Amino acid sequence: MSWSNEEMAKYVASLFPEFSSVNLGIGLPSLVAQEIPHEKSIMIHSENGVLGVMGRPNKDSVSPTLINAGKETISIKKGASFFDSSLSFGMIRGGHIDYCVLGAMEVDVYGNLANWMIPGKKITGMGGAMDLVNGAKKVVIMMSHFTKSGAPKLLKETNLPLTGKSVVHEIVTNLGHFRPENKQFRIITLAPGVTEAQCKLPN
Amino acid sequence: MKNSPKVFNNAKEAVKDIKNGSHIMSGGFGLCGIPENSIEAISELNLKDLSVISNNIGNSGRGLVSWLKKHMISKAYCSYVGGNPDLEEQIINKLIEIELIPQGTFSERIRAAGMGIRAFYTPTGHGTLVAEGKETKDFDRPCILEEALHADYAIIKAEIGDDYGNLWFKESARNFSPLMAMAAKTTIVEVEKLVKVGDIKPEDIHLPGLFVQRIYQGKDYKNDIEFLKVEGKNELV
């Protein structure tokens, strides 16, 4: 058995201490917003200019000008604020955000991260990822353990153009929680029933 | 008080002097806060060889995608292509020149232009393709030199504006717009609601009208939502 997306999101949410600030990336990481318990008083930052994101809005409070970085409608909590992109990235680049959670195409044992393009095939663009990996105090990767075609995403060395060099602190996949350390991936936790062999770590 | 020379009747009048080869900044994040009326009016001018500075260059087939489809853009400066298949296709087929910029560097380069800062050092992008050809300097960490990003025109939208050009933005629709207004020679603003000077309380003004050259009452706003998510079951985009 491996973790479902919701279980991964719950696990990632459990990593944040009370009163911390967290930026959530597009795709899988955005699910974490739903799983953060209210009583932890965590402020979620969205780089399009919101601090204090809550989960999804109810039908009656949907607003086209109230979205997250994934362009999904959101709701906000008491104490939330809005600001322009410069101030928003000042929060990131100035080292004021405690955690960021990003998706990835490849991560290697040195903590190098690739998540913005496959030359000649796919260009997603880096968006705020290059700022986040250099500015947030802790960088958490949340992704599927293998690509759709079954190739490992945890590698000895990345092949794709980098988003940042030696920037990744924690990796949470559907198979477990891993940490790049001493040129290998240390296993912190495996999802229930998952074996080390299944993870195909390049150790 | 005299009639403000900044107030224009509509989008068509406000954009009519924009020429081929202009550098244009366009506000908005995805489709949130985009200047819908000015985009449409400029699209009707069928210009060529534009350099466009915008975070997404349209999205989901809408917004600035109308310029892309008419091949009005020869160079695009942006940070994110995901969600804009029309742009991705033009990049891969080399129909358009592209400069992909990390979003924080993108907003800071625009802010720098407005603030009179010529260039700045940042660790963002060091060790990646973004750093290629750029001066590097060691501070606490290696940093790369990034230059200010200017434009001839900025087209932006605000929720409320007065006839001096003082602006108030709604929720997260502010994003890049105030920065672009400061960085461009001519800033053209469209608003959901045009009011008289004095109607916005001074402490509520998000962008002082000093940075605005033209303003008009917009109309027929779509305000599209890209991904409607409401309380209930989790699902991925």
What descriptive keywords fit this protein?
heterodimer, A: about 200 residues, alpha/beta, Glutaconate Coenzyme A-transferase, 3-stranded mixed sheet, about 25% strand, B: about 240 residues, 8-stranded mixed sheet, 3-stranded antiparallel sheet, 6 helices
Condensed summary:
The complex is a heterodimer of chains A (203) and B (237). Chain A is of the alpha/beta class and 203 residues long.
Description:
The complex is a heterodimer of chains A (203) and B (237). Chain A is α/β, with parallel strands linked by helices. Chain A is built from four helices and 14 strands. In chain A, the strands form three sheets. A nine-stranded mixed sheet of chain A has the order 4-3-2-1-5-10-12-13-14, sandwiched between helices. In chain A, strands 7-6-11 form a three-stranded mixed sheet, with no helix packed on it. In chain A, a hairpin with a 4-residue loop joins β6 and β7. In chain A, α2 crosses α3. Chain A is globular and about 45 Å long. Chain B is α/β, with parallel strands linked by helices. Chain B has a single domain, classed as 3-Layer(aba) Sandwich (Glutaconate Coenzyme A-transferase), CATH 3.40.1080.10. In chain B, strands 1, 2, 3, 4, 8, 9, 10 and 11 form an eight-stranded mixed sheet that branches. Chain B has a three-stranded antiparallel sheet with strand order 5-7-6. The longest helix of chain B is centred in the middle third of the chain and has 13 residues. The termini of chain B are far apart. The model of chain B has no long low-confidence stretch (mean pLDDT 95).
